[in-house]
Design goal:
- The protein has 1 helix and 10 strands; from the N terminus they run H-E-E-E-E-E-E-E-E-E-E.
- It is mostly beta strands.
- A hairpin with a 2-residue loop joins strand 4 (54-64) and strand 5.
């Protein structure tokens, strides 16, 4: 009985360790040299609030360590647009290289988004750069 119990205990221990490390619910701690930096949550669902030409816009941000992954859907003047990307997070700023998978005619098919979390944690604000052009981006946090 004792021999059978030991592997089961190890399996439960590893599963608990995996799930505790996989939790991205509130904040994560990263250490840099001797100091610990508290990171505010960026992962989650964000709504596009850039301007009235954009509707039904949603940005999903996922974070693993300092890696960022995004999926973005919006409608520009009624025309659907889809892109995805990956990048990095440094403090409260994410820089994501995006690739368009459903293009709006005349728009480029790749670019870079740089977004910074607002002081109150309710907005991601920044800009896109693609094809030599830049422009504003603004997302409002959805849910908790």
């Amino acid at each position: 009985m004792r021999k059978a119990f030991h592997p089961l205990l190890m399996l439960l221990t590893f599963n608990c360790a995996f799930f505790s490390n996989a939790d991205d619910s509130a904040v994560s701690l990263t250490s840099s040299a001797n100091e610990k930096v508290l990171e505010r949550r960026i992962a989650g669902l964000w709504h596009d609030v850039n301007n009235s030409n954009f509707s039904n816009g949603h940005l999903i941000v996922s974070q693993h360590g300092d890696e960022i992954f995004t999926a973005h859907y919006l409608e520009f003047k009624g025309t659907p647009f889809v892109e995805h990307g990956n990048g990095i997070r440094k403090h409260d700023t994410i820089t994501v290289k995006v690739q368009v998978t459903q293009q709006i005619p005349g728009w480029t098919t790749e670019g870079v988004h740089t977004l910074t979390l607002s002081e109150d944690g309710q907005f991601l604000v920044g800009e896109y750069a693609s094809g030599g052009s830049t422009g504003p981006l603004k997302f409002k946090k959805a849910g908790k």
